[in-house]
Amino acid sequence: MPETCKRVLNDDDAFKPGWPTSTLELIGKKSFIGISYYEHKRLRHLTAASINGHEALSVYIPYIEENVVCSLEKWSEMGEMEFFLTHLRMLTFRIIMFIFLSSESEEVMAALEKEYTDLNHGVRSMAINVPGFAYYKALKARKKLVAVFQSVVNERRNERKTEKWLKKEDMLDALMEVKDEKGETLEDEEIIDIMLMYLNAGHESSAHTTMWATIFLQQHPHFLQKAKVIDETLRLVTFSLTVFREALIDVSINGYVIPKGWKILVWFRSIHLDPQIYPNPKEFNLSRWDDYAAKASTFLPFGAGSRLCPGNDLAKLEIAIFLHHFLLNYELDRVNPESRVLYLPHTRPADNCLARIKRHNTFSTQER
């Protein structure tokens, strides 16, 4: 299985993305999931420079840390709250909005986050555009998101024409300035689809993984000193469960022929829960990572190959900073610890992790 996944995900001459209609229409045909291999390679190189690598990420650490500390302090005074759906996602969304759009507008963030919630419920649904279906509601949400982003792009273009314009060095500026071999810039549709995709992926994955890492550590306090909590959480509760690929030619893998045009679903979760790779795979166990290095294509929380999630380092940085401050000073008191788990659009407690954030009263951060 891992070798098959490695071939399907890495062989760009034999396979291309094969996402369902609903995903392609909602995330955007001009986003990374819809464009060609060569265009994807070019734009990925451009955009990844803003969010990957030690130099780029070090710029964001103070901002992320400041927002995490302030949010935790605020939450600890709120009492019962939806830890995940409302507050944790808004925190990660604020961070990604600042990095990509230099924006901290609470009004804009609240409006966009609401639409993203509806959008994500339709991404993995059947493409049934009829009232009452998730896809219908998601299309309406996309239309509103596109309108907001078009307004942001228009405003930025006007600002850039003024004499007092100061370059903001964010993702939107980078996308507006990129040129192809002919010197042509990106169209608004391309910029908007790429931004829509990045802002969605850039806060959903971080918020989900942070929530589950917090829950698991609260359930297993003896693991608090382990540094591998992020990897074990990503393995056990894989954020992106699947990826779709389409065969460009007849491909022979392990004696089987995949005909040209066939779509392949790579199920990451089946690999992460394979007992031959990870003994007792459904158990949250950080000790499994002691002196263990995952072999190629056996640990795929962010995909693999040329389409590997470009924001994976940023996501792990956000999670690490949050857990650092949370574990030093707070604890999570869930209202419904036995709440059932929902798996679409992403794995989460049915009550969106209804909980209270409590501050430790034993000693301060400085004393620790």
If you had to describe this structure to a student in words, what would you say it looks like?
This protein has helices at 2-10, 21-27, 37-48, 54-75, 83-101, 106-123, 134-160, 171-177, 188-219, 229-236, 268-272, 312-329, and strands spanning 15-17, 81-82, 242-247, 251-253, 256-258, 263-267, 330-334, 341-342, 348-349, 354-359. By secondary structure, it is mainly alpha-helical. The chain has a single domain, classed as Cytochrome P450 (Cytochrome p450, Orthogonal Bundle). The strands form four sheets. Strands 1-3-6 form a three-stranded antiparallel sheet. The chain has a three-stranded antiparallel sheet with strand order 2-10-7. Helix 9 packs parallel to helix 12. It is globular, with a radius of gyration of 21 Å. The chain starts with a helix and ends in a 9-residue tail after the last strand. The relative contact order is 0.17. Mean pLDDT is 88; it is low at 363-368.
The CATH architecture can be named as Orthogonal Bundle
| Residue windows where pLDDT falls under 50 for at least 5 positions | 363-368
How far is the N terminus from the C terminus?
45 Å
Largest sheet, in brief, is: 3 strands, antiparallel
Count of the domains: 1
Structural class: mainly alpha
Task: Estimate the helix proportion, in percent.
Answer: 40-55%
SSE topology string: HEHHHEHHHHHHEEEEHHEEEE
Strand content is 5-15%
Radius of gyration in whole Å, from Cα?
21 Å
Shape: globular
Total number of beta strands: 10
Counting copies of identical and different chains, the oligomeric state is single chain
Strand order within the widest sheet?
A: 1-3-6
Mean pLDDT: 88
